[in-house]
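Input chain follows. Return structure tokens only.
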Amino acid sequence: MAKKVEAYIKLQVGAGKANPSPPVGPALGQHGVNIMEFCKAFNAATQDMEAGLPVPVVITVYGDRSFTFVTKTPPASVLLKKAAGLKSGSARPNTEKVGTVRSR
């Protein structure tokens, strides 16, 4: 018999930088999930990525307080800024261009 899904939690956490502080701790704590277990598993799963790169994650919480999670690819805007070598985007979008990215 399949486990009953209690909740889905969507977060963006830095790769290899999950810790019990907000936003991870409160989001998982209100569903009764073991926070440190998630942090260790997430950090192990994202250790090959660049540290600090924001990674969207969907956590499925089951009725017995166990969980599974699926990591997604980082947001396109973050990857584009990284490829263009920018710290931030344009202050005036669609008016002022701040960089270019070419495909190879």
